Amino acid sequence: MSEAVLDVRRLQVAYAGNRALDLAALAVAPGEVVGVVGANGAGKSTLVNAIAGWSRGAPRVTGEITLAGTRVDAWATHQRVRAGLVLVPEARVAFGSMSVDENLCAAFAALAEPGRRVYARDEVYALFPRLKERRNHLGSQLSGGERQMLGIGRALMMGPRVLLLDEPSIGLAPKMVSQVLETLRSLAGTGLAILLVEQNVRAAIEVVDRLLLLERGRKVLEGPAREVGEDPRIAEAYLGATAA
Ligand SMILES: Nc1ncnc2c1ncn2[C@@H]1O[C@H](COP(=O)(O)OP(=O)(O)OP(=O)(O)O)[C@@H](O)[C@H]1O
After folding, report:
1. Domain boundaries, the chain
2. What does residue 95 show for φ and ψ, rounded to 5 degrees?
3. Transmembrane region positions (predicted)?
4. Is 148 touching ligand 1 by the criterion CB < 6 Å?
């Protein structure tokens, strides 16, 4: 496997003194899709938010986050985005009162550098023809799946090296879930590194290379998707997720 483009070590996050995450190590290589699963409150969102440098509230975050060989953990969110560490937030539209087209045009335009593909708006439309059909619709009028496509499209226009996604399948119809996840798989085929938080374990197993199970902020299992998928602890998490 090629060298990691995202390398996370000793990442600890606490909210008001309560430890929400304590992760010894996590690495994602170019072209790799790593899935993070776990029950509600396991620390999945906390993990991707801490890597992106974004948070609700004011958690205390310590640890090393290295992007393409450069430490970024002391950087502000926008600096990490400029460097290619881009979070697609959970089912939200950037600008609800702007059209799809305007939302895409408002994406910060990254400089092309080796290891980064900066998508043009029309390339996003080629990837998601549905968004092109809806180009003049307001962000607030989009369905859950269309919002997710718009979020991914905006992220691609920022020239990501690493794409972080927080539950892209949430609220989507099963067909749309597989469409979005398959698109992520094909993006990884172009060399993009993807870290994907997913409650839909069954769908995630279909597209990820490696799966990591978090419990109470700690990694309790990590391995190739198929192997880990057979572990009873994953089945429990999966059943927990479907019962919710
Ligand atoms: N802003 C915050 N302030 C205080 N505690 C928080 C905050 N955000 C998360 N937590 C706590 O940190 C822990 C991890 O939460 P997190 O949202 O990361 O879990 P999750 O695995 O993403 O859960 P879910 O699947 O429900 O989204 C939980 O105990 C949660 O209550």
Report:
1. 6-90+161-243
2. -130, 100
3. none
4. no
